[in-house]
Model the fold of this input.
Amino acid sequence: MKTSRWLAISVLAGALAMSPAALGQTRPYIGFAYPAGGQQGTTFQVKLAGQSLASVNNVVVSGSGVTARVVEYWWPLDAISTGLLGQQLRDLRKPKPGQASKDDDVPKLIARIQKRLGENQNTPTSNALGSLVFIEVTIAPDAEPGERELRLVTLRGGASNPLPFHVGQVPEYCRKPMLTSPKQILGKEYMALRRRPDTEIEDRITIPCTVNGQVASGEMNRYRFEARKGQRLVINTLARQLIPYIADAVPGWFQPVLALYDADGRELSYNDDYRFKPDPIIVYEIPRDGDYVLAITDAIFRGREDFVYRISIGETPFVTSIFPLGGRVGEPHAIKMTGVNLAGAALAPPAASAGPGIQVVAANKKGFLSNRIPFALDTLPEVFDKESNNTPSRAQKVTLPVIVNGRIDKKDDWDVFQFHGKAGDTVVAEVLARRLDSPMDSVIKLTDAAGRLLGFSDDREDLGAGVNTHHADSYVSAVLPSDGVYYVHVGDSTGRGGEEYGYRLRLSAPRPDFEVRTMTSSVSARQKGNAAFTVFALRKDGFNGPIKITLTNAPPGFTASPVVLASNKNATTFSFRADAVTTSGPVNLTIIGSAKIGDKEVIRQAVPAEDRMQAFLWRHLVPACELKVLVYDPTRELPPKYTAPELSPAQTVKARAVTAEAVAAGRRITKGQVAGRVRQLRTLYEEGLFTAEFYCDRVVECGDPQ
Done:
C-alpha cells in the first residue's frame, strides 16, 4: 500500500543534500545566461544555470537602464522528488469525481509539473550547471548599448560571479532554451545527443537582427534570411566573449564556426576566428537578391547548454583598425579608422579628463554604435614612425623617453629606431599591440652600433591582460654597456604586416609601477562579522617595494585595517569587518594600493577579478567592473511562495495511526527521518508543485513527527 511504499524509502539523505534547506552559505556561481542580452525597450525572460543558488532573491546588472527580478529557482530533483511529482501528475490526470470542474488551476499545475520534470536532469554533463534560475529582464529604451555585468544574489552567499550581458540596438531572435545536457557515455554518445524536430533546425529571420542560440553536441544551427544585392553585411559573433572559460572543456571555451550559404547550398564565406580571437566574423557583400543561410557550429562539434552565442547580422558599422593606437593624456587625438559601413560615422576620442591606461572608443553612425576598440593613453612624449626605417642605416632617430606610434606596413617589414645612451643606463623597450587588439605578434631586438645583440624578446606574459591567452607583446630591459648609439628593431615574428598591424613602442628608463587585483569580485559577510579576500599585486618595470592595501570611501559600518604587501611579495589576504546593519543588496567596496616609488606616492585602485581555469590547467584573472559585498542577517529566511497547510485534527489522528502501525510491524522510524521527509514535501509544496490535498496526504503517510 502507499504507506509502506513511502516508509520503505531509505535514500532521503541524498535528497536532503540537494534541497535548498541543506545547501551551505557558499558563494553562488552561474555558468551561463541565455539569452545573454536583449534589445533596448524590451522585457524578456532569461534562463541561468549554476550551483549554490538556493535562496536566490535578487539580480544586479551594472550600469543604468537595465532592471531584473527573480521569477523562479529550480534545484535539482532527486529520485524521490521526481517520483512524488509523477504521483501528483497521475492524481491530477485522474481526479476524483467532481474535482476537475471545481479546480480551474489543474491544467496549469499539470503544465508546471511537466515543465519542472522536463527541465530536470539526474546525470547532467556538468554538475556546475545543475540548478536553474529564471529571471525577467527589462531594458529601458534609452539604456546605453553595450556590455554590462549580470549577477545573481542569494540571501547569505551574496553576489555571484559576473557574466557579460549585452544591450543591443536591433531586433532580437531567441531560439528555444536548451534542456540540461545529459552526461555522455563512451561508445554511446549518440544517446545523449539533442533530438529536435526538423522545424527547429533552421529558422527564418529578418535582418538586421541579433540571433541568440545554444549549440548542443554534434549539432548545427541555421538561419535563413533575405538580402539585397549590394548589401555589405557584417556578421559578428559573441561566444567566447560571453563565457571566457567554460569548465571541463578543451581548449576552455566554445569555438564557434560560421559559414554563409546561398539558397542552393553553395558556401560563400567561412570563418572560424577573427584574427587572434576565437569568435568569428564574416564581412560579405551580397551579390544578388535572394535567400541566404547562416550556419553556426562548434569547430569540433562539441556542445552543451553553456555554449551560448549572440550573432548580429546587418549593415552595421564595424571598425577593423584605428591609428594611432593611443595618445598622450590631455592632448587632442586625431584617430583614423578603417572598417565596414563607416560612411557618415564618427569616432569619438576618449574624454578629455581620461587618465593614463587603456580606454575604449567606438564609431557612431546615426545613433548606432560599432564594436569597441581599445585606445591607450600615456604621459610620455609621442612621435610617429617614419618610413622607410627598416635598417640601421635608415633608422629613425628618437630621444628618450618616448612612445612611438608605428605600423608594420607590409610583410617582413622592420622598423628600426636609433637613440643615444650612456654606460650603466637601463633602457626599457616595450610594445603594446596585441593588448590593443592589433594582430601584430611583435618581436624586439636591441643592438649596439656594431650590430651586437644586447636584448631580445618575442612574447612576454602580462597577468593583467585579462582573457588573452597569447601574450604576444614584447618587452626588453637591458643595461647599456657603454656610451654610444643603440638601435631598437621592431617586427612581426610571423613576418606578416598590413594597415591593421599597428603598435605603440615605449622607449624609456624603467618606470617602476604596479597594479592591484582583488579575487574574487564578490564576497558576503555575516552581520557584525569578518570577511576576507585575496589581493594580488602585478609589479612592473622592476618595482619590488612594499604596497599598502587600504579600504577607502567605505559605506557606513565597514571597517578594515590596512595591510602591507611586503617587498617582492605578490599576494596577501585582506580582511574587513561589517558592523553595519544588513545591506538590502550588494554594495560596492573600493580597495586601493599605495606605494612610495622614488619621491612620489603612487596610488592604484584595485580591479576586481575572477580566478578562472582554462582547460584543466591554466588560470586567468578575469577583470570585473565592481567589487560587490553583501552583509546578511543569519536569522533571515525568504518567505515561501506558497505556505504549506497544517494537518487537520482528523489527519493528525491518521498520522499517529501510521506510526503505530509501523511500530507494531517492527519498522523503526526516527523523529529525524519523519521531519526530514516532511521538510522535503514542504519544499516541493512551497515551489507550487503540489495541491494542498496531495501534500497533506503525503505528510500523513510519513507518520507522527511528535
User: Anything to note?
Assistant: Confidence is low (pLDDT under 50) at residues 1-24.
